[in-house]
Amino acid sequence: MSYGRYKKYHPLLYRPRHPILWWIKKWAYTRFILREMTSLAVMFYAIVLVLYVNAVAKGPEAFAAFSEWLASPLSITLHSVAFCFAVFHSYTWFNLAPKAMVIRVGKKKIPGSAIMAANYAMWAAVSVALYWVFTTI
Amino acid sequence: MTETDINTTIEEVATIELEVFRYRPEKASAPSFDTFTVPLHDEWVLLDALNHIKDEIDGSLSYRWSCRMGVCGSCGMMANGEAVLTCAAFLKDYAPGPIRIEPLANFPVARDLIVGMDDFMEKLNRVKPWVINENGKSVEEGEYLQTPEELDDYVQYTMCINCMLCYSACPIYGMEPSFIGPAALALAQRYNLDLRDHGNEERMDILSSDEGIWQCTFVGECSEVCPKHVDPAGAIQRYKVEATNNWWKSKLMPWSN
User: Fold this and answer.
1) How does DSSP classify residue B130?
2) Would you say B234 and A99 are in contact if contact means Cβ atoms under 8 Å apart?
3) Does B219 contact A14 at a Cβ distance shorter than 8 Å?
4) Where exactly does CATH 3.10.20.30 map onto chain B?
5) How far apart are CA B158 and CA B38, in angstroms?
6) Nearest by CB to A3, which of B27, B109, B219?
7) How far is it, in rounded angstroms, from Cα A90 to Cα B60?
């Protein structure tokens, strides 16, 4: 028995191509891609920070110009978008933290919810500290 | 029961449609879908429907199954794009249908719903999923004792039934077939975390290679589809943390090895 390339008792495997748009087929995959892509927002913040330090180093005039740019509508729009993305990014990673961190104290395993809570608490603490630094100094 | 009662009972048997993936390389080089109508009984799972098709409608339908109770791990297929054990997925949950049954994604198809497993078998072997202990105790010396906590560290990874649903849910494996994959990595962790085992270093080479844990981008769907709650995604992330710690340790404290 044969058809085309098929010969009896010799399996002819069918290998479908992995679709390029695999990540829109399922919400879980889309969420994963969003989580990965929102890291660009984190990169955006890193670049802004570098430019900020650069402006400070150059002197008062450069710093004033940079502050002006920060207050521009374009910058505010970019920052609002980046902020939402960064929050989504942090939120998804903090929720995944217990998977990678299995901590034991004595005989007891620390529950995942406690590890998640600790991450959020640290996030809040660092945010408050930074807010204090930028508003009082 | 009167004759009319019997007739109404027969008419009332609900049915559901299955669109089944067919690949018969001796007849056509491309796969196609056949539609079958099967009775929709509350207690029927997808596997019952497939068995009904094979027994009553089309005996040429090919698929794997054995225990029909979630232990053998051979009846995994895609139902409406979701990797499931067909013995554990009830027909009524898909009502009113139709249900699209396809072979496990990311694997080459040999015939109808049967996929080639060679790649998985080879990878499973590569992670050495057995206790490595060269200086093992003799029988006279007695058994190895483990506390419940020590057992608890790895027992969930022992639940794996090699059903390969996790490979079907893993887009990384779909795109990078060289990736060792969720189940094999979880099973490697099963032995790494077992105190009787001393094969950690032997497995390290393969696990932390390009084909191992670092291919994983933590999509996490492997753990979602796992019928035994093995959590391969968790196993891989834990191993990443361990491998990173070891790397830092070897750089910062080279004398510790």
Assistant:
1) S
2) yes
3) no
4) 3-115
5) 37
6) B27
7) 52
- pLDDT (tens digit, 9 = 90+) per residue, B101-115? 999 999 999 999 999
**Tokens coding B72:** 């053998």
Q: Is the dihedral of CA B230, B235, B236, B237 positive or negative?
A: positive
* Secondary structure of B63-106 as H, E, C letters: CCCCCCCCCCCCCEEEECCEEEEHHHCEHHHHCCCCEEEECCCC
Q: By the CB < 8 Å criterion, does B195 face chain A?
A: no
CA atoms of B75 and A70, how far apart (whole Å): 59
Domains of chain A listed by start with CATH number = 24-92 (1.20.1300.10), 101-137 (no CATH)
Residue positions counted in chain A: 137
| Phi (first) and psi of residue A109, to 5 degrees | -85, 135
What does the pLDDT average to over A29-48? 93
Neighbouring CB atoms inside 10 A of A70's CB total 14
* Contact residues, chain B, for A18 at CB < 8 Å: 106, 171, 174-175
Q: Which residues contact B156 (CB under 8 A, 6 or more apart)?
A: B229, B230, B231
Q: Name the residue with tokens 């790397």.
A: B247
Asked whether residue A56 carries a pLDDT value surpassing 70, the answer given is yes
Q: Are B169 and B218 in contact (CB under 8 A)?
A: no
Cα distance between the two ends of chain A? 84
DSSP label at residue B159: G
The rounded Cα B257 to chain-centroid distance in angstroms is 37
Say yes or no: A57 contacts chain B, CB-CB below 8 A: no
Domain with CATH 1.10.1060.10 in chain B: 118-256
Task: Determine contact: A25 vs chain B, CB below 8 A.
Answer: yes
The superfamily in CATH containing domain B3-115 is: Beta-grasp domain (3.10.20.30)
Question: What pLDDT digit, counting tens, does each position of B198-249 carry?
Answer: 998 899 889 988 899 999 999 999 999 999 999 999 999 999 988 888 889 8
CATH, domain range B118-256: 1.10.1060.10
CA-CA-CA-CA dihedral for B97, B224, A23, B32, to nearest 10: -40
- In this structure, the dihedral spanned by the alpha carbons of residues B240, B243, B248 and B254, taken in order and rounded to 10 degrees, is 180
